Amino acid sequence: MEVRIPIELDSDTEQTRLQVTVGRTPYRPVFEVSAGTETTDVVMTFDLTPLADTVVVTAAQPGCSRAGAVITCDLGDPQAGERPGMRRQPLALTAAPGAAPGPAGSFTFAASGVSETGGYNGGPASSGPVRVLPRGTDLKVIGDRQGHLVLPVPSKKDDGFFKLRVENAADELGHGAKLAFKVPRGLELKIQRDILPCVDEADEIICTLPDIQPGSMWTTADKNSSGQIVEVFAKAGTPGPATYAIGVRVITSKPDLNEKDNTYSQKVETKGNTIDVAMTAKVVRDGDSATLTWMVANRGPSDATGRTVVINAPVGTELEPAAGCTATGTTKLTCVSAEWLPAGKSVSGDVRLRITGSAGADGTVTVSGTGPSTETKPADNTAAIDLTGEGAGSGADDDGPELPITGSSTVLVGAGVLLVGAVLVLIGGRRRRS
Q: What is the structure's pLDDT at 405?
């Protein structure tokens, strides 16, 4: 027969508790005895000889007796539903008054019983290291040992279980604690709020934790179903491939003994997505100057995590300085923004130009730097800056009429008209004299 002290980590995994932690509150560890299908009259024996005197051990159920450093407990027969493993809590352990936190020795335990043939059924002894908890409050957040999640885009239910636990590493009841999640843009956190009550704050989700006993833990494993209390989702517009981080922190109702383990960062990797951003440009001329209006439209499906707009002036023009842009001489502006542009949305900006000479080659305005998603139509990223017509420019929606000629060009045209009129008057006069 084997005995262990199980600790539940999630809904489908159990490991053996490697040590017993004790404080001022009596702790009753669960012992699981592999009793077999027909074993009866199960007895557990505890040897406390290796245990330090900083720990007080008492019998916690009828049928236990103590002789010196040995405690013997008659557990009886496995009850209905307890085969092949029966669970009992025969002992209570408490830290002695004034006990210093740290290792406190160990104790050994073994079980025996009567087999179906009436013979002895025993097993090897196991050891349970003991540690005295510090006095006070110490809650710590521990994440999934795998370290990160990998999500398709978009993801579906059961793709992103958020495995997390909060341990009480001190001897006071963890009461009134909260768990805060900071979710980056592009990801979504879904929580079974009937199990873990939460409220949505400005930039965090704040959840109220149940009481956590000293030396025990709370976990996101949903023991009443096959899932998890918390799941992470990548949406249709989530940029990728990319790495995101979900911040987690535990907020205690009393000062915490070790605030360094109150936080945790969950790494989330998303697979690839695609994007189509299109640039268009319009120009309105006014005398010796003009206004360029550029527009970036995100046709999706991915959101853009930012943008870089580069404007190269047409020949014969100079660019005026613009807010949020860096000038390279007078013929180039680079405008960088970290503003998120969701799929289906657009953004625009205006830039002023000065006409300094004869018109030459068109200028260009180009968008890039929209994030990790793959651009599907690179040709749409650039539009021409054309000063020859009203609303001139290029792009998918460019169908405006030509610009009227204004400013100094109008003076020249007017002079030409007057000259033609004078010639006609002169010709008419000669005809009358003949």
A: 26
> Tens digit of pLDDT for each residue in 397-421?
443 333 332 233 333 334 343 333 4
Q: At 7, give phi and psi (nearest 5°).
A: -135, 125
The rounded distance, in Å, linking the Cα atoms of 130 and 353 is: 78
Domain at 274-403, CATH class: mainly beta
Using an 8 Å Cβ cutoff, are 170 and 24 in contact? no
Tokens 């009550």 belong to 197
pLDDT of residue 388: 73
pTM listed for this prediction: 0.73
Residue with tokens 């199990």: 195
Residue 409 is predicted with a pLDDT of: 32
Report residue 18's pLDDT band, with 50, 70 and 90 as the boundaries: low
Rounded distance between C-alpha atoms, residue 299 and residue 51, angstroms? 69
> Among 363, 337, 358, 346, which Cα is nearest to 283's?
363
38-48 pLDDT, tens per residue? 778 888 899 99
- Domain ranges in the chain are 3-132, 139-270, 274-403
- pLDDT score, position 326: 97
CATH number at 3-132: 2.60.40
**CATH for the 139-270 domain, from 3.40.50.720, 3.40.1160.10, 2.60.40.1530, 3.30.470.10:** 2.60.40.1530
pLDDT at 379 over 80: yes
Fold match, 3-132 / 274-403 = yes
| pLDDT of amino acid 267 | 94
